[in-house]
Structures are given as C-alpha cells and as structure tokens.
Amino acid sequence: MSKKVSIKDIAKLTNTSITTVSFVLNGKGHISKEISKKILDTAKEIGYEPNRMAIGLRTGVSKVIGLVVENIGGPFFGEMSKVIEAEAEKSGYRIIYCSTDNQVNKGKEAIRMLTQQLVDGYIITPFKGLEEEVLKLIDQGKPVVLVDGYFPGLNISHVLVDNYNSVLKAVNCFIEGGYRNIGFVTSDLDLIQLDERLSGYKSALISNGIKENPALIFKLPYLLDKSEGLKQIKTFINTHPEMDAILFTTNYLGVMGIICVKELGLHIPQDLAFISFDDTEIFSVYPPGITTIQQPVYQIAKYGIDILLSQMKGSTPENAATKLQIASNLIERGSTVAKNES
DNA sequence: ATCTGATAAATGACGTGGAC
DNA sequence: GTCCACGTCATTTATCAGAT
C-alpha cells in the first residue's frame, strides 16, 4: 500500500524545505526555475494531492458549504441542491447535505455537525425552534442564508417563493372558474411557509366575498405514515361532498391527493377541481393535467448560493441582509377548467 | 543598501504518548 | 490520575545568507 503523500515527502525527495515546496505549489515566494521544476515534476510523479483538511486547519477556510434542508430526497430540495452544488463548484466549494425532516433536534444536530466540520457558510431551510442555533452562527460571523422559509422578525438573509400571493393567485383561478367550495389541504407543521399559504387562501376567499368554511381546511399530521395519510385525506374528501375544488399545499400532499381522487373514482375537474403546490412531473401527466403552482426553484437556489458566496467573500457589508420573495408561476392545466366549460 | 532565493518557526485543533 | 509535549499537515511570517 502506498501511503498518502504530503509536501513533506516532496521536500525530502527534492532536498528542499517544506516551505519551498509550498511556495512552488502555490506560486508564491521567490524560488528558482530549476528547483520549481524539480518540485513540480516530483509532485506529479508521486501523485501529490493537497490535503484539504490540513489547508483548512491552517487557513480556517474549509471550502465547504453546509446545506440543511427538509428532505434531500424530495423533488423540490433535490432540484434546489443540484443548482446550489453546481454554482458552489464554480467557486471551488463543496457541499455537505443534511436533512432535518422539520424536526428541531435533527436540525440542531445537523448544524452542530456542520460547525464541527468548520464549514465556511450555511444554507438552511429554517423552521421554528432553530432560531437560537442560527443566531449563534451569525454571532460567530458565519455567513448564513435561509431558503424556502425565514424567521419572522429576525434580520437574516433569505430567499423563498412568495407563498402568500402564489396561493392567492391559485385560489382566484378556482373562483374565476366558478368554483366556490374550495378545500385546502395542508400539513400541521408549524411552518411560516404554510401559514402564508393559508393566509393567501383566506384572502382570496374574502376578496371574492366567499365566506370561509373552517371545515374545508384540513391539516394532515406530518408524521403519519403514507397509508394512514391517504385514509385521512379520503375521509376528508368524502365527508365534504359540497366541496368542488381542492388545493394541496405541498408536492407530497398533492401526490397523495391524486391517489385519493383516483381511488375514490372521482373525475377531475367535474367532481373536483384540483391544484397542487410544486410542479412535479406526475401533475403534467395525470389526466386531464393538474394545475400547479410552480416554484422558481432555480432562482431560489441561484439567489441563495449567490448571496452566500458574496457574504463569504466579505464583499457584502455586515448586517446587510438580503431578503427575497420570488413570484411563482401558476401553470394552468385541465384540472381547473371553468365549470360551465367542462 | 537592496534584491533573490530559500528556510525555520509559528500557526491552527486535538488526540496520543510519555513523564511525573 | 493529571498534564504537557508532541505529531499531524499546509500555509505564512519573519528572517537569513549571499549576490548585486
């Protein structure tokens, strides 16, 4: 087994000092051409690769970004992570991924682990209960950007979709199509994103003179297993035959909604008009096409990583938080065709 | 006095070995 | 059982010898 080579080995082989090798490899100092060439040749010959950990130890810069999301396996976060990774790589950064499942202890643990790894910056999907840890990071001067959420009242950079207006627009789409009894299926998670989606729903009803019916708002417990979740959604749909439209506030809820509708033998949009948050492939394929609120995933990710990179370069003044809420795109398909046309 | 080419030593966090 | 020096590894500062 060949042991890993360090600059020490190169120094020994070329009868120079460690310092000289380091200078040659990094183009610094004043080193003669002959010695430089000898060192570079030797380095190549023995397959030298810099030890990133040692560099980080010395410089305090790890060139690693910590990415904390709800679930790296989900379509939204998966797509977002791809963009972030690609952009980070252009600047020489690598990513460590963590999933929290929106659980406070997992979130804290993820941040603790990343801190131990001395990551240079953090991109975090925040939720209630993580305020203290995130503020601690900022206190230590670590760049932090929040994505897909934020902490109300705290001055921290964040990028997310405009949840309120996204749902407002979607519900208005139902109403313009003649639908009045609009169901709203969300999660019981205490997330600001979901709060704002609910606010958008309520505002749309109010501004159209429709009385809000609390019975048509259903909060599915987050930690249920899938079959139990499906059962509860089916029950919700069945117990409200007057409901003529339904909106799901996340992609996994939307997919579950499709399954329920199929299993109940309902027709979209004749029996039930349908909109889901997040445009997943299945929504474009499932007949007659499901109208979706398409999040600007690319932009959220791009802005998020750009803001973080500029903070890490120090080119952004301290305590100048950048806060962005980006408009979504309502993709209208067959599931929201107007009543009299269907 | 000034410039070149090179180096020793300090630095960073922390587990380990040896001394007491 | 406590404690400090040491090894890990690459970078950087301060510095030195020798040449101009």
General description of the model:
This protein folds into 3 domains: 44 residues, Orthogonal Bundle (434 Repressor (Amino-terminal Domain)); 133 residues, 3-Layer(aba) Sandwich (Rossmann fold), CATH 3.40.50; 145 residues, Rossmann fold (3-Layer(aba) Sandwich), CATH 3.40.50. 45% of the residues lie in helices and 16% in strands. The protein has 13 helices and 12 strands. The strands form 2 sheets. A 6-stranded parallel sheet has the order 2-1-3-4-5-11, with helices on both faces. Helix 1 crosses helix 2 and helix 5 packs parallel to helix 13. The N and C termini lie far apart (72 Å). It binds a DNA duplex (20 and 20 nucleotides) through helix 2 and helix 4.
CATH architecture of the largest domain: 3-Layer(aba) Sandwich
Largest sheet: 6 strands, parallel
Low-confidence blocks of residues: none
Overall radius of gyration: 26 Å
Please report which band the strand proportion falls in: under 5%, 5-15%, 15-25%, 25-35%, 35-45% or over 45%. Answer: 15-25%
Averaged pLDDT:
88
Instruction: Give the % helix.
Output: 40-55%
Number of discrete domains: 3
Number of helices: 13
For the record, give the distance between the C-alpha atoms at the N and C termini, rounded to a whole number. Answer: 72 Å
Q: Report the principal-axis shape.
A: elongated
The CATH superfamily of the largest domain appears as Response regulator
User: According to CATH, what is the class of the largest domain?
Assistant: Alpha Beta
Derived from helix and strand composition plus strand pairing, the structural class reads alpha/beta
Helix and strand run: HHHHEHEHEHEEHEHEHEHEHEHEE
> Tally of extended strands?
12
Largest beta sheet: strand ordering: 2-1-3-4-5-11
CATH topology of the largest domain: Rossmann fold
